[in-house]
Amino acid sequence: MTSSDISFGNWLTPPHHRLGLHRVEDVVPCTTIARGEAPVRMLVPASEPLDWDLLTVPGPDGRPISAEEFLARTHTDGILVLRGDTILGERSFGGFTSASRHIVMSISKSFAGMLAGVLAAADLLDLAATVPTYVPELAAGSYAGATVGQLLDMTAAPHYDMSYLEPTAEVHAGDRAAGWRPRQPEDVVGTRPFLAQLRGAGRHGADFQYCSGTTDVLAWVLERAGGAGYGELMRRHLWSRIGAEDDAFVTVDDHGTPYACAGMGMRLRDLARFGRLVLDDGWREGTSVVPADWIARTRRGGHFATTAESDSAAGGTYKNQWWIPGDDHGSFYGVGIFGQYLWLDPQTDVVIAKFSATDQPVADTPAHLDALGAIARAAALTPQEA
């Protein structure tokens, strides 16, 4: 398969997605999130890197498998294991390289969660306010009674089906509205017109309901609170401050609206740099980029179990657009369909960034999490010095 085989109609469809997920800018309109002029955060290779041949991780049935088998089985494009600023392991496969930019899918939500914390700390965002306070265009729709805090914790209750394998579900209609998939004659054009026409809701704040549309409503709120476009807010408050080596991108619809729930893309090392910032309690070279107390609240998790959701660990919760598995290391993570992961382990001080192209949109999440946890523990035993 070559780049010429990738098109707007198939970039999300296996097996074409194996190239499509890191050829997004060739097939979907995108806008740049500039890295700015700040110095690049230097990452250095370990003197004794992880030995992937000897490393074992839990397999889907709980029995140990080799790390190589795990990487192959999950159709890994790239993986990077970082402790401090030391690269303990880095692998790339197929046509993916260290200079490639890969879409991160719903890890985009975790970026939105950190951006919200910055605006809240600046007293620009009121978590107790309802959505129409910032976006009156949604006063008659599914999100009318939801608060900003409920958006962040996925406890808003819109009428929205997230079944990835059901073409009639709202998640697919949202993709088509955002310009990710070929549209049908009855489709709404644009993410925000799509959100505004949603009707029906359960009781907001009563339970966990994972929903991509909720993050796009949050992004709309953040724009109004922050007084700038979403991409500009992301550049100003996060991306230009993490020491990225390259610009990021975010896909946009026909109106130029970013698909905040899933559309960000970047280099693997830059995703790890973002994870490093968060694991460092939001500090970068003596400056607070994201408030430490916001990250601490995120790590404590939410009020509702997320076990029924396919992206969750058993006994997990969700807070501020991050997943909290409840393991004995206090780990937390962002995850996107087809196997995108940003795994943060505070006890071992390890960040793992992983890009993949799994066969199914959601596949073997518990096993994936167990494997990433095992890699983090093994990395803790690896010398850091370069």
How would you describe what is shown here?
By secondary structure, the protein is α+β, with helices and mostly antiparallel strands. Helix content is 29%, strand content 17%. The chain has helices at 17-20, 24-27, 67-73, 107-121, 131-134, 148-152, 170-177, 191-196, 212-226, 230-237, 268-279, 292-300, 365-379, and strands spanning 30-33, 44-45, 56-58, 64-66, 76-83, 86-92, 102-103, 248-251, 264-266, 283-284, 287-288, 317-319, 322-324, 332-336, 340-345, 350-356. The strands form 5 sheets. The chain has a 6-stranded mixed beta sheet with strand order 2-6-5-16-15-14, with helices on both faces. Strands 1-8-9-7 form a 4-stranded antiparallel beta sheet. α4 packs parallel to α9 (212-226). The longest helix is centred in the first third of the chain and has 15 residues, at 107-121. The chain is globular, with a radius of gyration of 19 Å. The two termini are 38 Å apart.
The largest beta-sheet arranges its strands as 2-6-5-16-15-14
Give the overall average pLDDT. 95
Task: Tell me the overall shape.
Answer: globular
**Rg of Cα set:** 19 Å
Structural class: alpha+beta
Topology order in helix (H) and strand (E) letters:
HHEEEEHEEEHHHHHHHEEHEEHEEEEEH
User: How many helical stretches?
Assistant: 13
CA-CA gap between termini: 38 Å
Residue share in helices?
25-40%
Q: How much of the residues is beta strand, in percent?
A: 15-25%
- Count of β-strands: 16
Low-confidence stretches: none
